[in-house]
Design brief:
The protein is mainly α. Helix content is 37%, strand content 8%. A hairpin with an 8-residue loop joins strand 1 and strand 2. The termini are far apart.
């Protein structure tokens, strides 16, 4: 017999080694994807929360008018993008706090507007039981999943 080619055992060993390597690579890939989404979530939450705080600061400074019974937080999340009339401007200038509302990376339903992917907490609701109300004090992810750090995304 000629010594050219591979034996069946050599082929089986090669296939087994490739299978073991692939089995190790898949979980690493899944963790990498989850870590990237968590980074997007962290960034989006920071942007929205900074927008809410900026809106409140403008109300406190008198640049955005406030109703007598309001606390100064935006009534709707979309108000950060729609803008509000500048009370200190003689013209019809508007104050825009954000260019767009980022989407919750764990809600991929394209039929839902980005602002609707977030849970909203009003100023009147407690932090351990957030509820929507007359204003938007904070936002949270509606994802039921738990992060790599062991904390549910809802509590970030």
């Amino acid at each position: 017999m000629s010594g050219r080619g591979f034996t069946l055992i050599e082929m089986l060993v090669t296939v087994a080694v490739v299978a073991v390597l692939a089995a190790m690579a898949v979980p690493v890939g899944l963790v990498t994807v989850q870590r990237a989404k968590e980074g997007e979530l962290r960034t989006a939450l920071r942007q929205i929360r900074e927008g809410i705080d900026t809106y409140k600061r403008y109300v406190d400074e008198g640049r955005i008018a406030r109703a007598a019974d309001a606390n100064g937080y935006p009534p709707h999340l979309e108000d950060l993008v729609r803008g509000a009339p500048d009370a200190k401007s003689p013209g019809a200038a508007r104050i825009y706090v954000m260019r767009r509302i980022p989407r919750d990376p764990f809600n991929t339903d394209a039929a839902i507007a980005a602002s609707e992917t977030w849970g909203r907490r009003s100023y009147a609701s407690p932090p351990d039981a957030p509820e929507e109300g007359r204003d938007v004090f904070d936002v949270y992810s509606r994802s039921p999943s738990i992060g790599l750090n062991g904390i549910p995304y809802r509590d970030w």
